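so the lab meeting is tmrw and i was supposed to have these ready like two days ago... anyway. pasting both below. for each one the top line is the aa sequence and the line under it is the structure tokens. i havent really looked at them closely yet so no promises
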Amino acid sequence: MRNRKLRFINCLILLVFVAGCQKPQQVKQPNILLICVDDLRPELKSFGADHIISPNIDKLAKKGVAFQSHYVNSPSCGPSRYTLLTGNYGTPNNNALFLRAQQITNGQTVNQSMPEWFKTHGYTTVSVGKVSHHPGGRGGLNWNDSTNIEMPNAWDRHLMPVEKWQHPRGAMHGLAYGEIRVNASEMDVFQSAEGHDDIYPDGAITNVALNELKTLTADNKKPFFLAVGFLKPHLPFGAPKAYLDKYEDIEFPEVNHNQKPIGRTTWHKSGEFNQYNKWDKDPNTDSEFAEEIRRHYAACVSYADAQVGKVLAELKRTGADKNTIVVLWGDHGWHLGEHAIWGKHSLFEESLHAPLIIHDPRVKQNGFKTNAMVETLDIFPTLCDLTAIENPKFTKGVSLKDILNKQDTIGHSVLAYKPGAKTLRTKTHRLILHNDGFVELYDHTTIEKETKNIADKYPELVNKLIDELRAKFHNEF
């Protein structure tokens, strides 16, 4: 009996010794899945639009934090994605990232981009689809020139499947079964073709994204930063007919303030939209045609939502969802008749207000909506904060980590710019400052909102907001 007790004690001592000698198992840093959706208004069920069918994005919103008052920093694809991917303001044109690339080629010192920053800190970085302005991240005539990289040093792999659309430029403005935009006036502004999801380019993007998830999650040595960019609901509005059919019996709400503004504003003639074939119809005077457009846009949203669902389902299937931060981001808003505009490119609310959802599975306070005002510039420092990576001093945004952990955290005023004008949005007002000094001021606490310029009535408030706008921009451009 005594010998057995001694052997038992010795075994315990040995176990304690062995356990003490073992190195503590390192927990891999969280992965990042960034999902970019082109031209996506915050017109989703999880953002208050009951007529929109968006179950997959809504499910993500219920798991994470849905930022109801997220604003982009520019109402156009190129400059908006520049701010997302660099954490800085850039030029207000679509070639902003290519200009940055040229600076790198010329030997100028340029701050690292967000994917490059994470790559430097041990992440495998991959982009699929439209993440930077050009799908696949290359320039050239057909956006497939491997010597003309939009974001040098950023991605281990930057992929853009083209399949029947021949090249990235063809896929960007493609419709069903390989139709490519050659002459926009001969291409229909909307379409709903019979077939499965793969008859449009986003189906191919989804398939490549699923394969990349399989590859990345099989490697347990390094965390990954996977960015997936979907094209729809970008013009032309094309989605499989099954998605349009979902809206057959759904009543759409009326469009607010659908008249052209009186006086000087950043209103425009909807040139991007009007270049397509519209069968000689004008949605500003033809209400039936206007509703057709809105339904086809909604079909594209539901189609994009289905692709998001496939990616999230694959992430869950691999088990990597337990250690992956998911960010869903719309690159800007889109007018569907508000202010008699069909498109983006204005500095009105509809061009700048876009969805943002962040889900960190480690955060206990997930699953709520916040009205804290935030901007796209905040995403870079937030992801650094959540992954415990050094936050570079050159980024202009602020981390949203506190908001993710505490529902009532207050946000901040936000800025945006386009050629010829800049804007500051506060909780109560929007100020638009044109480069020649002309000012627009709108009060969001009134029923008129952005239909009545009150700048002449409140000179002190105008001066205060102009000072704040200039202090935030630091006269950078």
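ok protien two:
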Amino acid sequence: MTSPDEPLRMLRPHPDDSAWHRPPDPARVDPADLTALLRRHGWLRRGGVPGRYGRWTPPTPAEGPTSLLVPESRAFPDADDLLGEALDALHRSAAPSAREILIALAVPSDEIRWHRDTPAGPVDGATPWTVDERLRTAARQTLLAAALATRARTGYHGARHRGPAATLLDGVLLGPATEGRTLTAFAPAPTGRPLTVRLHHALHATREAIDYQRATGAMDAFDGAVAAGVSRELTEALTALVRGTEGARVAIAWAPAAGVPDGCAASAGPVEFSPGDLPALRAAGARYLSAEPSVTVSVTGVVVRLRRSGPRGAGTVRLRVLAGAEVPHLRLTLGEEDYRIAGHAHLVGLPVRVHGRLERRGGFRRLTGATGVVPVRVDETERDRLMKSLQENLDFFEEACGEAYGDGDGK
């Protein structure tokens, strides 16, 4: 999905400061939210006084003897005390779900859970690190694909929109992984909700398109699925998730405190994928890549690198894009006169404007047929900033001087 020189941004693990080593403040916890989270994570109600409190235990006896008394509301005098004791008990619990429940209470979040059905390792309770890494990589790719789809609905994003999409992932937290099979991400609500809503629709659209392809042999459903957020990036992420497993699934659970977003099911269950889906996913990715057209653009950018084989003739230029394209950098080949203008603009700290076609091959990182290079006037403040940036990249500056003006005649 990405080139080797553009690694995926890592999602943040859960913050490790003192606030995360103690239970949430009971005054900030809604008993109904705690009850909903316990039920979601498989805890069992074992009685209690109807209308006042319920007694909850972990999903399996092996997870410890923890028993929680959770008030149903704050309508009774002892509700706050019971809630505080329940949170303390959760904090001490050995149940794997206890920490995830506390995270979801501390930062109300939509939960995204990936599960891979992988063969057991050679040692009970031990997981090869490669298996865990594959899960985390597939999860990051899935979230990035959904984040890209919040910026544009297109079959292939390439390098476009990567900056804003990565910014959307900044608030997403990762819970603890379980034996390389299960991983949960927490997208804060409501700020992260566009991400989870888009992923919800895209996953279901992908599942429907695969089912249609496997039933009819036709790929048409993948074309319509683009409107729901399906893309080459998502099909590659799901391929990575499923490869090497007996099956995989992705489930989304909405933050109880934020409610169910419009147009989404309250409890749709996980979306499942199997190794038999891989041919359709690969074919869809190839289809999206070939169908995405090149785009005619007018780009404004700062020249950060110049290179040519001799003192005269055409040369290649690297631009840091300011406007006109949704990518951070572009490579282009310029004729001698345009190259000379770009070199002068580089030396005096002025951006340039250039016209050409943004090519899909290579991820929309290359501008072909580039012509009409002209310097762009900027105010003094902006020019000083650009010059400071230029001075911070002296290797580019020296290369430009040595190669763009190596003949010594000012050309």
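from a quick look at the 2nd one: The first strand starts at residue 12 and ends at 13. Residues 109-291 form one domain. will dig more after coffe
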